[in-house]
Amino acid sequence: QNREQRMRLTALAARGYVEMIGVTDLDPAVLAGRMEAALARPLPPPGGLRLHGDRDCAAIIHGLLAGEGVR
């Protein structure tokens, strides 16, 4: 599970939605600086994230069972 969470975090960070921090960033002064820098950056563009994987998978399985193949 840890590996999967890191993969998700890395993908979100690459799109500008989150920023990864390490143990050394947990110092209060360093963390405050990181937070201020994050708040000063422009927001990433909306969209681009697939948020309905369960629904998409169900549609694929339904199509396979119906003999339609994968779309």
Question: Can you summarize this structure?
Answer:
This protein has 71 residues and is mainly α. 55% of the residues lie in helices and 0% in strands.
Describe the protein's architecture and organization:
This protein is mainly alpha-helical. It is 55% helix and 0% strand. It has 3 helices and no strands. The protein has helices at residues 2-14, 28-40, 53-65. It is elongated, with a radius of gyration of 19 Å.
% residues in beta strands: under 5%
Helix content: 40-55%
The string of secondary-structure elements, in order, is HHH
| Terminal residue distance | 29 Å
| Main sheet attributes: strand count, strand direction, barrel closure | none
Oligomer: single chain
Question: What form results from the Cα inertia axes?
Answer: elongated
Give the number of helices: 3
pLDDT averaged over residues: 87
What's the Cα radius of gyration?
Answer: 19 Å
**Contiguous uncertain segments of 5+ residues:** none
**Based on helices, strands and strand pairing, what is the structural class?**
mainly alpha
What is the tally of beta strands? 0
